[in-house]
Specification:
By secondary structure, the chain is an alpha+beta fold. The protein has one domain: 3-Layer(aba) Sandwich (Beta-lactamase). The protein has helices spanning about 1-10, 25-30, 65-80, 105-110, 115-125, 125-135, 150-155, 165-175, 185-195, 270-285, and strands at about 35-40, 45-50, 195-200, 205-215, 230-240, 240-250, 255-260, 265. The protein has a six-stranded antiparallel beta sheet with strand order 2-1-6-5-4-3, with helices on both faces. The protein starts with a helix and ends in a 6-residue tail after the last helix. This is Beta-lactamase. It holds the Pfam family Transpeptidase. Its EC number is 3.5.2.6. Keywords: Antibiotic resistance, Hydrolase, Signal. It is an enzyme of class 3 (hydrolase).
Length: about 290
Amino acid sequence: MKKLLVCLLACGLLSINANAKTTQEFSELFKNYDACFILYNLNEHKIVSEYNPGNYCNQRISPDSTFKIALSLMAFNQGIINQNTVFKWDGKKGVIPEHDQDQTPGTWLKYSVLWVSQKITPQLGQARIKHYLAGFDYGNQNFNGDLGKNNGITHAWLSSSLKISAIEQLDFLKAMLDNELPVSDEAVAHTKKNLYLGKLNNGADYFGKTGSGRHGRNERLDNPSKLRDGWFIGFIQNGNQQYIFVSNLTDKKVQASIDKSDGSLKPFGSQLLKPITTKLLNDYFTDQTV
């Protein structure tokens, strides 16, 4: 399926809905970035809107916090968590107020709480995570982490060794929604519920996860990159129709500033991308009814 999607996308053989943006409109929205946007109709098994200059949708970058979708599926499937699990905050304050409190599987995804992920991954273990990554056909499946740092179990997905393309994210989400991943239906149902974001302008329910990082060397290494990566991926329930959306961006040139308090690049890549993607989704569904 993956090879077929890659071919159809690259060769321009998939039909595009009349509501789709023109290349010029896409280019204006993403003028400062290398970017990808894909909207896929799951019922009709086709891409209905896309922006893929330079075949960027096939370029692998770190999944960053979008990896929490895969990690949630693993944790629910292994019984490490359930919907009533409470992750106890250790009292150490960070830079995001919503992170400085006890968390649940729902708030973990809602607020994208890194320390929760880093509690779950050691419980799963390196071997089991790699087994799941292979079963998910998840990007390059490299969970080693930073070279020479031996930190894969807590950092592999954070601008580090694990990489995935937008097309591979699309395949992963499609397999999840079709219940084709090697996890229980309950693990999928719980994860989907916790990804809920609200409604688009036309009333359609949408679900998703953002992710932000650096394009290349992360802040844990010498001479870190000053280019941002951003992700926003998810799915939409529009009446009896289901759609998957996958978007990412990377700075074309250095534009971000370093926040000296935490070493991050501000604003985050996902903060730039999410409003663009939301606009694209709202525009696409403007003439469609729930």
